Amino acid sequence: MVTRKSLLPALAAVVALLLVPAASAADDAEKKGVSVTDVAGVDEALGDAGVSWFYDWSVDDQDITPPEGAEFVPMIWGADEVNQQSLDAAKASGSTLLAFNEPDMAEQANMAVEQALDLWPELQETGMRLGAPGVATGADLEGGWLDRFMRGAAERGHQVDFIPLHWYGADFSPEATEHLRSYVQAVHDRYGKPVWVTEYALIDFSGGQPRYPSEQEQADFIRTSTEILEGLPFVERYSWFTLSTETSPTGLYEGAQPNLSGTTYRDAAAGR
Predict the structure, then answer these.
(1) What is the CA radius of gyration of the chain?
(2) How would you class 173 by CB atoms within 10 Å of its CB: exposed for 0-12, middle for 13-18, buried for 19 or more?
């Protein structure tokens, strides 16, 4: 016989289901993120992009308003930011820390491997999860900047939880996605750690001026590359470069309005 008391667990379960909020686009794409700068329309574009995380090369969100459920990831950009004020700000902004933006490039963080290794304990003291320095190129090469850093980190007992990667493809053909996959796989094979692809896009830097793909070429690459990155179990997160066309021609949004690449990236991984 069904009694009132026996119905209570079932009723509680129904109520619990009704109280669960609908899944957002960010919930559908736990890996997918984007780099942002504080330009006109950034809040609206970020809210529309369907990402679960974002960063802005800074220790805080620069007053950018994220959508509900989107995590901000702070960065210590270079050696000058290894100070207590910046480290405290980063710790207050998130639980994972990106560190040293392209230290192998003179026009970026421009750091010697030994300098980065010497400063690393101060980053560890935040207690945050730490990504390795995000080199511009050659992360898979024996004897490269990252390889020397990782060997030094192992020797000193430094904490490195994952490897951030930057990748820019000069081949705009359908083969570009395989080039990206091969690079990401090679880095994972070398270090055996999770990978975050924190900057990636199609840009040819081989000439005097950067060369960019057509709108359709870029959108096609976004569609195939996100499918690959979503399917690689060792890729924890990835982030397209970048949100706004005001920052780069590779941008996904013109102000608050998505272009073809923006709608393609927004729809990527939906419902996974």
Answers:
(1) 21
(2) middle
pLDDT digits (tens, 9 = 90+) for 22-54: 333 344 469 999 999 999 999 999 999 999 999
What does the DSSP assignment read for 173-226? STTHHHHHHHHHHHHHHHH-S-EEEEEEEE-B-SSSS-B---HHHHHHHHHHHH
- Specify the pTM: 0.89
Q: What is the DSSP letter of 69?
A: T
Residues 267, 272: Cα–Cα separation, whole Å: 11
Residues in contact with 15: Cβ distance below 8 Å, sequence separation at least 6, in sequence order: none
Distance CA 46, CA 100 (A): 24
202 half-sphere exposure, CB direction, 13 A CA radius: 25
Q: Are strands 71-72 and 53-55 parallel, antiparallel or unpaired?
A: parallel
* Tokens (6 digits) for 56: 């802005």
The values of phi and psi at residue 264, to 5°, are: -65, -45
CB distance 51 to 36 below 8 Å: no
